Amino acid sequence: MPAHALSSRPASAAVLRFGRLVVMGAVAVLILVAGVWASWGTAQHVMLTKGRERGTVDVTRCGADTCWGRFAPVSAGSQPRSKVVLERSVAVERGRTYTVVLKPGGAEAVRSGPAGVLYAWVPLGGALLLASVVVAGGLLRTRAAWVLGLSGVALLTAAFVTV
């Protein structure tokens, strides 16, 4: 029997399928790495608080992109400051007090506690949702896509509820 009769598909179809899996897998991994990278810039300050200045900020004024207020230290060795800057978001309002961690070498603060941790990982939640579409459509792995998508929805929902 001839060799071409044994296989119903040519070898080029297998190569194309393998190429699609490699490219779509790389795209999905790239999306997830970008989500972790975007989240880690803030999450490192919120999660690794040892040796950092912690305290509360009473928000007194807000501009277009930032809010600021007086910093009252909680951790040992922290100094009170008259002006600390917080990124303005839906969760920051004038007249409220927030627990924060100061970024080293400046007067920029990020929210701490469960709300701060979840808010810091919001970019990863979006990346999980986007990667689930790539995994489902490009890799044809629907179970893995559902796990990624539901993880992203759970993270974003938890951040929304706590903030």
Key phrases:
163 residues, 5-stranded mixed beta barrel, 5 strands, 21% strand
- Could you describe the largest sheet, including whether it forms a barrel? 5 strands, mixed, barrel
Query: Got a strand count?
Result: 5
Q: Unreliable stretches, pLDDT < 50, 5 or more residues?
A: none
Terminal CA distance reads 69 Å
What's the SSE pattern? Answer: HHEEEEEHHH
Helix content, binned percent? 40-55%
How would you describe this protein?
This protein is an alpha+beta fold and 163 residues long. It is built from five helices and five strands. Strands 1-2-3-5-4 form a five-stranded mixed barrel. β4 (97-102) and β5 form a beta hairpin. α2 (11-47) packs antiparallel against α3 (113-120), α2 (11-47) runs antiparallel to α4 (122-138) and α4 packs antiparallel against α5 (142-162). The longest helix has 37 residues, at 11-47. The chain is elongated, with a radius of gyration of 23 Å. The N and C termini lie far apart (69 Å).
Break the fold down into its secondary structure elements and pairings:
Layout: H1 3-6, H2 11-47, E1 54-62, E2 66-73, E3 81-87, E4 97-102, E5 108-111, H3 113-120, H4 122-138, H5 142-162
Parallel strand pairs: 3-5
Antiparallel strand pairs: 1-2, 1-4, 2-3, 4-5
Helix pairs in contact: 2-3, 2-4, 3-5, 4-5
